[in-house]
């Protein structure tokens, strides 16, 4: 199973957002992860941030046919936010910040108050 590979963020004021695709309950959550310049974001989005007490990555969402592992709490939140006939834009720290890139993660964490 192919794991999602993050594209590098090249500007300190750029963030990643997720576009969740419409779907019915029971269907896999499909998203597109894209870059947006913080100073130019004009559309509304939902921001989600979680405590990391339960860091078990037990669920998956799908981005361009690649698996993105997420926690049960984030999975439940995305299911609740997903619309059946329209897209939804979401920023979720667990996905939109590349947790494996420690240097870039620190830059992104500095933007969290604004996000």
From TrEMBL:
InterPro entries: HET, HetReg/Transcr_Mod
Pfam families attached to this UniProt entry: HET
Annotated Heterokaryon incompatibility domain residues: 45-115
Stated name of the protein: Heterokaryon incompatibility protein-domain-containing protein
Species assigned in the record: Podospora didyma
């Amino acid at each position: 199973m192919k794991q999602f590979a993050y594209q590098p963020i090249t500007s300190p004021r750029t963030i990643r957002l997720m576009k969740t695709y419409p779907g019915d309950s029971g269907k896999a959550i499909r998203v597109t992860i894209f870059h947006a310049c913080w100073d130019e974001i004009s559309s509304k989005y939902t921001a989600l941030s979680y405590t990391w007490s339960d860091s078990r990555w037990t669920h998956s969402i799908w981005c361009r046919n690649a698996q993105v592992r997420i926690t049960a709490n984030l999975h439940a939140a995305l299911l609740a936010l997903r619309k059946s006939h329209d897209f939804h834009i979401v920023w979720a720290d667990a996905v939109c910040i590349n947790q494996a890139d420690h240097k870039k993660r620190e830059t992104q964490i500095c933007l969290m108050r604004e996000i």
